[in-house]
Amino acid sequence: MKVSAHRAFALLKELAYERVSCSEAEKKAAERLLEVALSTGASAHIEEFPVACGRVTHAKLVVTEPYVKEYECTGYERGLSTPEGGVDLAFYYAETAEDAHMPNVKGKAVMVNGRLGKKVYEKLMKAGVAAILTFDGTTLDRRSETDCDIRKLRETLTEEAGACTALHIRTMDAAEIVRRGATKMHIELTNEDYEGTSRNVCAVIEGTEKPEEIISFGAHFDSVYFSTGVYDNMSGSVIIMELLRYFAEHKPARTMKFNWYGSEEQGLLGSKAWVKAHEDELDKHVLMINIDVAAPILGKNGCPVLATEKAVGYVDALMREAGIACDVKLDIYSSDCIPFADKGVPALNFVRFGPPGAGYIHDRRDNLRSGYLSAEALDITLQQALMFAKRVDAAKVFPIERKVSDEIVKKVDEYLFKKKDKK
Ligand SMILES: [Zn+2]
User: How many CB atoms within 10 Å of residue 159?
Assistant: First the structure.
């Protein structure tokens, strides 16, 4: 039996629709992945987990002084609803929330640059802001060709600081608001918090010789809003499905687990839930192999390794031996490898990134019609991952030490907002 990039690409095409965390579509994709996984003869099932969700039914932003204009906006899910009829607030643009801005933000609608991070959010909340505005896109966007993104106040942000009224707008509108010197605005937000259900699809093949050693393959199958998530990350999802097919027929020496994670885009929620539910078996895990983003026609292969320099040397040598161009390095990667490394399981990622202009992520351009993906390009990462999986599985002694270096532990801790012990 041979793996087939064309079969994988056909499955990718079939599942090329928006699959946002806890949506009906995410559930539908999970059920289809389960069906395909079961058809390989492997045992497989779905594991559900709860997700803190929000439903925004109304959001409005009107600049009221010194001019009057309503702007397109979206409300943050899990944002604090305004009272009936909304609120009228003074407006202040705080750039990146540097200290020099802080005396001016209290009680105001405050706009900041970039993605709303935990540090900035907590700083603004501590300073007593009344509402937060964020923006993304470019000043050159055409409204008909782009979307005003939908964001969520994640639990990691609000767990200490609490919720705030927050709206998201387009960069071109943010620029206009500042250029025209807005000083007052009217804001309305209606959000309802609820507990949603997301899913991981899990398949297992028992090892024939060393069943007590587990190699875990992972790929997230959810997408963000407006994106069909073919590049990020149905590409990785269908690649590990081909690996499952292969090893279902060519039984591995070690036990292999294949997990398709839901809700990765909301903060690695699927892999965090999986690691938590399977804590008692993690000490048997010798390696986690994650694939998140593959198949761009123009591109470059990379392999961030969350383990040790020794592991990097081993992976790099294997790639050289096989003649595969791959930038192997010791580093973290923002994906489902993180919760595993956090528990001491060495992890690595096979990824193929498109150069600027030939690899679109997290918006409507992550779509087959954008013409930057192909089955032939998907085959590069598929063959790379298969070669690697066969080699490590066949090893007499597992070639990667079960160790995560201090440098990686530090980066993972920062990524997960872990508090440093006060000494
Ligand atoms: Zn991804």
Answer: 10
What class does CATH assign to 67-182? alpha beta
Convert 278-297 into a string of H (helix), E (strand) and C (coil): CHHHHHHEEEEEEECCCCEC
pLDDT (average), residues 403-421? 91
CB 47 within 8 A of CB 274: yes
| Ligand 1 mean position, distance from CA 304 (Å) | 14
Q: Give the distance (Å) from ligand 1 centre to CA of residue 233.
A: 5
What spacing in Å lies between the alpha carbon of 186 and ligand 1's midpoint? 36
Distance 309 CA to ligand 1 centre (A): 25
Question: Over the stretch 91-142, which tens digit does the pLDDT of each residue have?
Answer: 999 999 999 999 999 999 999 999 999 999 999 999 999 999 999 999 999 9
- The class level of CATH for 5-52+196-415 reads alpha beta
Domain spans of the chain, in order of start: 5-52+196-415, 67-182
Tell me, in angstroms, the distance from the centre of ligand 1 to residue 200's CA: 15
Same fold, 5-52+196-415 and 67-182: no
Report how far ligand 1's centroid is from the alpha carbon of 96 (Å).
26
DSSP, res 296: B
Query: How far is ligand 1, taken at its centre, from the CA of residue 347, in Å?
Result: 16
